[in-house]
Amino acid sequence: MKFGDFFIRIKTLVTLGNTLDVSKRLVILLVTVTITLASVAIVNLVYMDKVYQLTNVANKNTVPSLQVLNNTILQFMKLRIRVYRYLVNTDPEESPRIEKTIVTAKKDLLDSLKEYDPLISDAEDKRRHEEVHQLLLKTLQTLDNVVTLSKEGYSNEAALLMYESTPFAIHTQDVIEQHIVYNAQLGKASSQKAVELTSTIENITIIFSIGAIYIVLMLTLQIRNNMGARQTAAIVNASDDAIIAKTLDGIVTSWNPGAERIFGYSASEMIGHSILILFPEDRKCEEKEIMTKIRNGDRIEHFETIRLRKDGTPLTISVTISPIKNELGKVIGASKIARDITKAKEAEEELKQAKLEAERANQAKSEFLANMSHEIRTPMNAIIGMTQLVLDSDLTPKQENYLQKAATSSRALLRILNDILDYSKIEAGRLEIEQAPISIRNIIQQSVDLFTTELEKKSLNLEVQVDPKMPSIVLGDSLRISQVINNLIGNAIKFTERGGIWIQASVQRKDANDLIIRFAVKDTGIGLSKAQADQLFKPFVQADTSVTRKYGGTGLGLAICQQLVQLMGGDIAVTAMPSEGATFTFTIKAKPYLSNAVEQEQPLAIVYEASNSQSTDSQSFTGYRVLLAEDQEINQEIAVSFLHKLGVKVSVAENGWIAAKKASETKFDIILMDLHMPVMDGFLATKKIRTELGAACPPIVAMSAAVFDEDKRLCLEAGMVDFIAKPIEIAEIRKCFSRVLIGQSELSDNETPHTESIWAINVLADKLGNDMALSQKLVHNTVEQYSNFSSQIEDLLNDQKLHEAAMALHTLRGVLDNLGFTTHRKVCLPIEQLLKQNQIPTFAQRAALLGTLNDILIQLNMVKAIEEETPAGFGEDNNNAFVALQEVIPALRNYLEQGEVIPDEIHNVLLSIHKALPNNVEIYELLNCIDAFNHEQALATLETICQQLGEKV
Predict the structure, then answer these.
(1) Distance (Å, rounded) from C-alpha 233 to C-alpha 255?
(2) What is the pLDDT of residues 99-143, one digit of tens each?
(3) Which Pfam families match (predicted)?
C-alpha cells in the first residue's frame, strides 16, 4: 500500500468520526490508535528480531573468534621465541626448563586452534581456518626439527633451519592476520545491516506516528510518545553496552541491563546515587571536565578511560556522552553509552609485546651476526695472512698451485661473509648512505680496471658510454655505487662466455636540488627466463639451483644491490631472454655538488685525481718506526711480516697497557692498534696515549675484525685517524701508510722540502712584491696560530659544535688560499658545506681532513725552517735546464695547440727541468695544467716562460 493511499484512508476515517458522537468518535479513535500501535509493534518486532540476530553475529561469533585468532598469533610467536631461546641457550641446566616451556607453548597453540572449531561461521571461514591449521602444523614440524638438531649437537644446522623458516613463519602470521581481517569484516557487515534495519524501523515508526498524530491529535501524540518510550527502552534493554542517564549533578536516573552486566551494580543500587561510585580516585577529576562540556551542549565521542566494577576490578571502557535537552532546548542531563574494551586492549597490548619481542629477536640476530663476523674474521686473518706469507717464499710449482687455490678460496669465503654482513646491516637499518663529492666517470673506470684481467681471460669485449651531460662531480656514496656496479659487471662476466659487455651512465633527470642518474650493464650471456627474473632480487635465491653448483655464489648479491639502490633513492630492474643475455638497469638520486660557476673552476682536478696521484704499490716506508698492539701471536706474526716487507721497524705490544707504556718511552711514527685485547683494550689505550703524549702523539690506526660503521665511529671518537679491517693485507697497510704517513717524518739535511711548500712561499712573496722577509713572517705567524688546529677542530666535531667547526674551517681555508696552498680545498670545502647543513662528516672524511691539515702544518714548518729561498724565475747556474727547456718548447707548443696528450718523453723532460728548478712557479704551474688537461692555461703559462727566456710565442 502506498503512503498516499494510507493518508487518504486516515482522512476518511477522521471525516467519518466527525459525524459521530463523542463516545463513538472515541471508540473510532481508540480503534485507530490500537491498529496504528499494533502495526508499529508488529513491524518493530519483526525488524528488531533481525537486528538482534545480526547483533548476535558480532557479539557471539565475531568477537570470540577474533579473541581466539589473536591468541593463536600470540601463542605462535611465543613458541618461536622459546625455540629461539633454546637455540641460543648456552646453559645446559637451563635447557630442560626451556624444553618444557616449548611443550607448553605447543599445547596452548593447538588448544587455541581447537577453540575455534565451534566458532566457524561459513564455508570461507572454515577454509581459512583449515589453511591456518595446516600452516601451523608445518611450522610446528620445522620447530621440532630445530629443537631436535640442536639437542643432537647440530647447532649450526639448527640455526640455519631456524633462519630459513623465518619467511614461512611470517607468511603463516600473515595468513592468520588475514583471517582476523575476514572475521572482523563479517562482524562489521552484520553491524552495518543492524544499523540499516534500525534506521528502517525508525522511518516506519515515524510514518505511522505521523498518521496517528493526524488522526487523534493530542491523544494520539501521547500514545505515540509512550510507545516511543517503550521502543527506546526495548533497544536500551537489549543492548550489551551500558546505557546510562544522569542529571547535571551526576545522579543516575536510568541504568540498563547492559550496565548491570558490565559494572555489576543493579539498577536499584545505582539509580538515585552518584555516578562517581564507578570512578577510581585518580579519575574523579574527569567528571568535572565531562559535565562542563555537556553543559555547553558538546558531545564527547569515543573517550577511553578506566572505571571500577562493583568488586573493585578496573575496566577499560570507551564512552560516548551526549547532552539531554528538554522541549525548550535546555540541557537537563546527560546520556552515556559505555563499552567494555578491556579484553580488546589486553589483546592489543599482547600484540604490541609480541611485536617488541620479535624486534628484540631481530636485534639479537644482528648482534649475533656482528659477533660472529668478528670471530670468523680473526681466524680468516691467520689463514689469508699465512697463505700470503708462504706464497712469497720459495715454492715448487705444485705447492704454489695448491696455495694459490687456498688463497682464492679464503678470499671467496671472505666475500660471502661480507655479503651476509651487508645484508644483515641493511636489514637491521644500520647501513648509512654517505653524501660526499664523487666522480661517476672515475667510479666506472675503477670498476672496469678491477675486472680487466677476467675480461682478458675470457676474451670479452667491453664498451663504456658516459653521458656528455654527466656533471664532473656530484654528491653521493662512491663505495655503494661501486659495490652495485662491481656486482653487475662481475655477474655479467661470470655468465658470459663469448661476446661482450656494455656499460652506460646517463643523466635521466636534473634540477636544482636532485640529479637522477641511470646506469645500465648489458651482456651477451646465458640470459634469464621471466620466472627466473621475477625471483632474482630475492635474498638467498639463485636463478636456477644448478647455477649455484656451476657458477657459485650466495644468492645475496643482487638482493643487496636492490636494497642499496633503494637506500640511494632509486630502483633496479632486469630485462632478459634465455640465451640472449641480460640488461640490468638501476637509478640513484644524487645531488649537485656546486654551482656551475664553481664547478667549472675545478672539475678536472677532482676527476683526474686518481690518475695524478702517486701509485702506492711500490712505495717504501724504510726508516719509519711502527708500534703494533696485537694480542694474538698468529696475527702478530702476519702483521710483522707484512710490515717488514714495507721496510719499517716494528715493536710489538701484547696488550693496550704495554702499548701505552712503549709509546711513552719510545718515539714512533705510527701506532697500529687492535681493538679487543686483554688487560686494556684498544679504545682505552688510545685515549691513554693521546692524553699522555698530547700534541706529540703519533697517528693511531685501528686494526680490527669489527667492521660495522658504529665500530669505526667509536674508533674516531677515541682519537684514531684511520681503520684497517681484518683480515689484513699488505696492500691495505701500504694504502693506509700512504694516507697517514706521507709528509709526517722530519726531513734529513740532504732532503728537499715538499714542492707545494716551496711553490706556496714563492707565490706569497710574489703577492707581497717579492718581500721574502714578510712572507716568512706570515708563514711563521700562521704556524704559531694554527699549530693545534687539528685537535681543536676534532674537539669541536666530537662536541657536535658543527657551526663553530664550519666557521673555523672557513677561516683556515681563507688563510691557506692566501698562502698559496690548493690541495686542501678538495677535502676542506665539502666538509665545510656538510657542517653548514648541520650534517656530521663520515669517518673517512674526518680522517682525510685531519690528515690533510696535519700535512699542511708540516709543510708550513718546513717553509719556516728555510732561512734563504731562491727567488722565483730562472737563475744563471742552470744552463743545462734552460737549454733542455728551449729545445722542448716547439714540440710542446704544438701538442698544446692541437689539444693532444703530451707524450711521455716530453713530460719526462719537463719533470727533469722542474727537479733542476724546484723554486720556479711557472714550471710547476705548467706541469699542473698539463696533468689537468687544461691546455689553454698551459699555453698561457708557456708564453710567460718564453718571455722570461727572451723568446716570443
Answers:
(1) 11
(2) 888 888 888 888 888 888 887 878 888 888 888 888 888 888 888
(3) 4HB_MCP_1, HATPase_c, HisKA, Hpt, PAS, Response_reg
Fold for 436-612, please state it: Heat Shock Protein 90 (3.30.565)
Query: Could you read off the pLDDT of 136-195 as tens digits, one per residue?
Result: 888 888 888 888 888 888 888 888 888 888 888 888 888 888 888 887 887 777 777 777
Residues 6+ apart with CB under 8 A from 83: 102, 143, 146, 147, 162
Domain 625-741: CATH superfamily is Response regulator (3.40.50.2300)
pLDDT higher at 31 or 582? 582
Residues 6+ apart with CB under 8 A from 582: 492, 495, 522, 523, 525, 527, 528, 574, 575, 576
- The SS3 assignment for 668 reads coil
| Same fold yes or no, 241-340 and 436-612 | no
Burial of 549 (0-12, 13-18, 19+ CB in 10 A): exposed
Residue 877: pLDDT band by 50, 70, 90 thresholds? Answer: very low
Full-model pTM: 0.37
Residue 592's nearest CA partner among 511, 665, 657 is: 511
- 18: exposed, middle or buried (C-beta count within 10 Å: 0-12, 13-18, 19+)? exposed
Mapping DSSP to helix (H, G, I), strand (E, B) and coil, where does residue 774 land? helix
What is the chain's Cα-based Rg? Answer: 42
pLDDT digits (tens, 9 = 90+) for 639-663: 888 888 888 899 999 999 999 999 9
354-427: CATH topology? Helix Hairpins (1.10.287)
Q: Does residue 307 sit in helix, strand or coil?
A: strand
Residue 717: other Cβ atoms inside 10 A? 15
pLDDT value at 208 more than 80: no
CATH architecture label of 241-340: 2-Layer Sandwich (3.30)
Averaged pLDDT, 415-431: 67
Between residues 16 and 75, which one has the greater pLDDT?
Answer: 75
Greatest pairwise CA separation for the chain in angstroms? 149
* Strand, coil or helix: 879: helix
Tell me how far apart the alpha carbons of residues 126 and 526 are, in angstroms, rounded to a whole number: 47
Task: For residue 611, give every residue at least 6 positions away whose Cβ sits within 8 Å of its Cβ, in sequence order, or none.
Answer: none
Sequence ranges of the domains in the chain: 3-225, 241-340, 354-427, 436-612, 625-741, 755-865, 879-949
For residue 837, give the DSSP letter: T
The alpha carbon of residue 684 and the mean position of all alpha carbons in its chain are separated, in whole angstroms, by 30
Give the other-Cβ count within 10 Å of 244's Cβ.
25
Dihedral angle sign, alpha carbons of residues 538, 540, 546, 550 = positive
CATH topology of domain 755-865: Four Helix Bundle (Hemerythrin (Met), subunit A) (1.20.120)
Query: Average model confidence (pLDDT) for the chain?
Result: 76
